[in-house]
Design goal:
Length: 308
């Protein structure tokens, strides 16, 4: 079992510049912060979001972590891996009904010792209610609750540290947005005229604006306006995609030798290139795109024959 204090020493990851004719033509500098390389199992933003939650759980003498997610959730995968590594029991409450055999994500989670439960979609929508949490405590006993996606005040603290690891001058930092925790952390760590742009991966994600403001209010006393969320690059909704998006991700990987997936990072990079094409980003802008990992999800796409 690994010492949980090792979380204070998240490894440094490269800042990789993308060199292609398109960017050269538009006079844009684009760098990728390769957080997909920070850990083989807790990769990307998940390591940062879980860091202070795991430390808090250990400080409060919790033995069990409980969290929520979809059947292909990167978060479920990461919590299961963290439990095995740092000696926590883990419980994953999965949205929807059980499907056998287990997909690669849930198979991995179970192999790490995670106890998997299922919750119908109606109840799942109210999963944070006092009534549902009380029922879960009656069923599973005492646990440390990590929200879906890992997003809470402690997650912001971890994600804000990503900004401190950047050693170049930049104008914009971009990330994909699911629950809003990662971009809220980035926003809180920015300085001066730098801005954060989030690319919503869910359809109808206007709620993100309010959720991010609430998160920032918990973490920062000062109101921050150095950010915006782009709503036009969800490709139909969470885990939805089109041939155009798949074609883009394949070409991006071929040109850069950087693996991306179509649920999060693929949509972000598509959005960045589209904004540059439409001249919505000025010349001589330096952009950092945060690679939030999630590559474990590629196995699920291959299993469903979406990707080769």
């Amino acid at each position: 079992m690994q010492d949980i204090q090792s979380l204070f020493r998240i490894p440094s990851t490269p800042l990789q510049k993308i060199e292609d004719e398109f960017l050269f033509k538009h006079k844009i500098n684009l760098y990728v912060k390769r957080e997909d390389l920070n850990d083989p199992e807790l990769s990307g933003n998940k390591l940062h979001k879980l860091k202070y939650n795991l430390l808090k759980a250990r400080e409060d003498n919790h033995e069990t972590l409980l969290t929520f997610g979809g059947a292909y959730s990167n978060h479920i995968y990461a919590v299961a891996a963290a439990g095995k590594r740092f000696g926590f029991n883990t419980i994953g409450i999965i949205r929807g009904e059980e499907h056998l055999p287990l997909n690669p994500t849930l198979k991995f989670a179970k192999s790490c010792g995670m106890k998997i439960g299922y919750m119908n979609r109606g109840t799942y929508r109210n999963k944070t209610s006092y009534q549902v949490i009380t029922q879960l405590k009656e069923q599973f006993g005492r646990f440390y609750l990590i929200p879906e996606g890992g997003t809470n005040e402690l997650a912001l603290k971890g994600c804000a540290e990503i900004i401190n690891s950047l050693d170049i001058n930049f104008n914009i930092i971009c990330t994909a947005c699911g629950t809003g925790g990662t971009i809220a952390g980035l926003i809180s760590g920015l300085k001066g005229s730098q801005i954060a742009i989030g690319f919503a991966v869910l359809k109808g994600a206007e709620f993100l604006n309010n959720d991010i403001r609430k998160l920032l209010g918990l973490y920062k006393t000062k109101r921050l306006n150095n950010w915006e969320i782009k709503m036009d690059y969800h490709f139909g909704g969470y885990a939805k995609f089109t041939p155009e998006l798949i074609d883009f991700t394949n070409k991006f990987e071929s040109n850069t030798i950087i693996k991306v997936e179509p649920v999060y990072t693929g949509k972000m990079f598509f959005g960045i290139y589209d904004m540059i094409q439409k001249t919505n980003i000025p010349e001589e802008t330096t952009i950092i795109a945060l690679h939030t990992g999630g590559l474990q999800g590629l196995e699920g796409f291959k299993e469903r024959r979406v990707l080769p």
